[in-house]
Design goal:
The protein is an alpha+beta fold. The protein contains three helices and nine strands.
Amino acid sequence: MKKNAILLFLNLFWLMPASASWQDKLSEWTDFVVEDIKDIRCGHRYDVYVPFYAWHNRLTYDREHLDRYNENPWGAGLGMSHYNSEDTWSGIFAMAFKDSNSYVETYFGYARQWNKTFGEHHDWKLGAGYTLGLTQRHEYDYIPVPLPLPLVGIGYKHFHIQAAYVPGIKNDGNVLFAFSRFEF
């Protein structure tokens, strides 16, 4: 069922009537992301990711599902990232972790987070942004599925806690996925 819904969504997306302004905006945004990824690769730090919590929204799940779901998505990931002159963070990364059903899930993506800095030396960062990527799950026979998500984070110097929210319907999705990120 989920696989059919995703395929239907993708087909509808590609069949949408294209306007010149929509195409121009998409092209402009795609060019920006490509340039940002080039900047990450040229002047980057290495990152290690450690997923540690997957909170299933208690308002959207029944007790039966909550009792059997895994909320400890232990795993790991690697990435590269950089900050621009306005302390906006961008990164590319890959993670593998245990999903809600304790199967391996992967996520390969790009992320951007606008930050506000605090403290005498601007060591603290608080921000919001987005991540765009591909996930692979056992329910979809590990076929890559696009997954754009909102992202928030807080950090101190080289240690950060970030979280993405996976929207969904009753007993599916609606998960706050939290992970730590260490910059080297």
